[in-house]
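1st attempt posting a full record on here, be nice pls
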Amino acid sequence: MNLPAHIWLNGRVIRTDEACLSPFDHGFLVGDGVFETLVARDGRPFTLTRHWKRLVASCAAMDIPPPSLETCRVAIVATMQANGLSDARVRVTLTSGNGPLGSDRGDSPPTMTVAATALKPWPPTESVITVPWTRNERSALAGVKSTSYGDNVRALALVHAKGAGEAIFANTRDELCEGAGTNIFIVANGRVQTPPLSSGCLAGVTRALVIEACEAAAIPVEETVMPISMLQTCDEAFLSSSTRDVHPLARIDQREMPGISGAVTQRVAQAFRDYVAGRDDP
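the predicted structure (as tokens):
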């Protein structure tokens, strides 16, 4: 694994091999933190304001003081420049800082890091597998982009071992919810459908942009509760995320899907490109 040479830590860019986090940082001890992943192209962060607003919402849910929008912008640009990156995958991570060995909080200031790596393309299509574990739509962390990603690590290890690239979760009501790092859309009877936020899924930045793009292009779209079994009857399906944009599905479990040849998926992908074209912060 090639690590970037520089990282932003608590207000300044330093060499990665010189960066030190306390072993008592609660992000390390108990996963007490939040984060955002976004992309930057031509040296400019994309949809930074939306990501920052979601970071602030996650911080509010976790009771962690959030950084300002300008702090995030300066840190991201400085980290990219230090690593010689124009196009990048960027991660902003914020923890509650040092704390005791248990779950109780300490009184230390938050820890903030920004890391940037080269932006790598995804393959044209993706394959997914539904996993036997569920999202808890009533969890204290439902809808929070928390650093507590153990469920996702376990799920991705399972699906990668089976030759797929993404895991799909139902919630405790056996409703379609989300992927490990993506939102999911299906196409049924010509309509684009995606689980509502009440399902427990993350309020994806790209998810919102896809919905807005469909509405702007007069493509029927709706947020609706649906059983996980819809994955076995839908006509097309695709994922969305900040690094994937609109990513067609070629296989769901053992079921072959249209992938890039899906007519509605093609329309949505084009509508998304048109909607964000020429805008760094739509």
